[in-house]
Amino acid sequence: MPSVFTNLFTDFTNNTAAAVGAPIRDAIRADTTVVDELPEDDDPLQSPTFLAVGD
Q: What pTM did the predictor assign?
């Protein structure tokens, strides 16, 4: 089940695209998976922790 943030982000993306005249023609979907943290994950991240890919 997508998180509230995921729904908010996809709504924002869809609304922004429509506002600039480039509506998204298909549904925006997001699949999330919870993973266990590892000791090597302690370094601070300098980039997004997700990867957006198309079908």
A: 0.41
